[in-house]
Amino acid sequence: MGKRLAGAEKEVLVEIVRFTQKNGLKGAEGGWKDFLARNDKRFGASLSDPKKRSKDVLLAFLVTFSKDFQNYFSKLVRRLQEQSAFQQYIKEFPDNISPEMKLVQLTAEHPEYRKNYSFPSYKEGWKVMREGKVTNFVNSNMLAIDCEMVLCHDGTEALVRVCVVDSRLEVKLDELVNPLKAVADYRTSITGLSKKDLKGVTCSLVDVQKSLKKILSKGKILIGHSLSKDLQALKFDYARVIDTAYIFKYANLPITASASLNSLCKSVLGYAVREEGEPHNCLKDAEAAMNLVIAKLKHGFNDPIEIARNSVPESDMVKLLAHKIPVYLPCQELLKLFSGNPSIDEKNDSRIRGDYYSTCILFGDIDEAEKAFDELDGQETKDSSGRLQKNVLLKRDNGDVASFYIRKMAYGSQLNESELSKKRPPPIEDAEPTKEVDGEKQKKRKTGKKHEKKTKISVAE
């Protein structure tokens, strides 16, 4: 057992065990619950919350993994200890934290951060970059990055271009990258690249990782829009990040939603990164991300900003959201409703709320997703944000009929006042509950001899 793992605090070991649970990792005695069932005759797996187990039990489970995994766990220990030191430093010396590092903290506090920045960096080919010393917490040096990816025949995405600029918009890295495997779709309409552009390119992903490790030394901050997707393509685990999709508040989007880079630039910077139908420019996108952070630092933008209602990240446009699904209905059965070869989006964690859950259905392209929605048989309505949805019925093999909603990701027009006044629809599954705000003090209602406060009201369908 490594010294770092053995000497870690219990709270750190709890997080590592939870990491193994989230990723379905198994040691010589299986996963966490398998281990408990075999080794705890009194409680077995019934007491599976790692927080309720002793440090010795947590360590005993982690040492059932291979030496390579234990080395990786040691890296996680170091990462978690550095993050803990950062939080402690903020508490003790809040005035010493640079405005840039406060945006790093703001990114980490976003409700989607934990899900999107939990990388499978234990897998082959991944690099884990450490955060560094506590003294780096005052570092204000920033770099912005953007990547372009192609679809390969094995179903994975591969990096084909990467651009990095500094805060003066000077180019620090601009490379075409050889994917080193067969490409199924160059996505030229998006990437702006074709097969001939990569002819003779020798730069590899490993070369890019080495370059990034060098230019990100001494605690520099890495910026990007929906940066987790770029880091996935780079197979590069780096924690000191500012995600421009996370640092602004949106007046007309759910708390878990984010605006596209193009729409955010229109609202914050007053210009579009690209015209409609124009392919991405990797360098311009990196510059735009840096300009958004500079604008945030200079002007604050603390009040919620309005985003065009038809603004949705392109990666979301190939999806349909299925929600208010009864928990007894396996998500794979949803695919029976569609022709072609859609799949359940594995990057989207199914969100369970009581007796229902939600998940995303992924299609090959935007047109396929649009066609799939149009062909659905069900009553069409809108949610409170103006997105079209249908209440559909699915007959199961056992004769039971399940009812749930399938919704577009794109925004349409707002519901008008008459539509809103007819009925308060049920809560949606993709937004966090919010307190009712009406500018007046909440009134108390009598229930017998007592008064009770009104409960929180969720955003309506």
UniProtKB/TrEMBL annotation:
The UniProt regions of compositional bias labelled Basic and acidic residues, in chain numbering, are 432-441
Keyword Hydrolase included in the entry's annotation: yes
Where composition is biased (Basic residues), the residues are 442-461
One GO cellular component, as annotated: nucleus
UniProt-annotated location(s): Nucleus
Report residue spans for region: Disordered: 415-461
Q: What Pfam families does the record point to?
A: RNase_T
Task: Recite the UniProt keywords alphabetically.
Answer: Exonuclease, Hydrolase, Nuclease, Nucleus
GO MF annotations in UniProt: exonuclease activity; nucleic acid binding
Q: Which domain of life is it from?
A: Eukaryota
Q: What is its main location?
A: nucleus
The chain positions of domain Exonuclease read: 141-302
Annotated InterPro entries: REX1-like_exo, REXO1/3/4-like, Ribonucl_H, RNaseH-like_sf, RNaseH_sf
Does Hydrolase count among this protein's keywords? yes
Signal sequence: where?
A: none
Q: Which PANTHER family match?
A: FI18136P1-RELATED, RNA EXONUCLEASE REXO1 / RECO3 FAMILY MEMBER-RELATED
Protein function: 3'-5' exonuclease degrading single-stranded small RNAs.
**Protein family (similarity comment):** Belongs to the REXO1/REXO3 family.
**Protein name in UniProt:** Exonuclease domain-containing protein
Q: Which organism is it from?
A: Oryza brachyantha (malo sina)
Q: Which gene encodes it?
A: LOC102712992
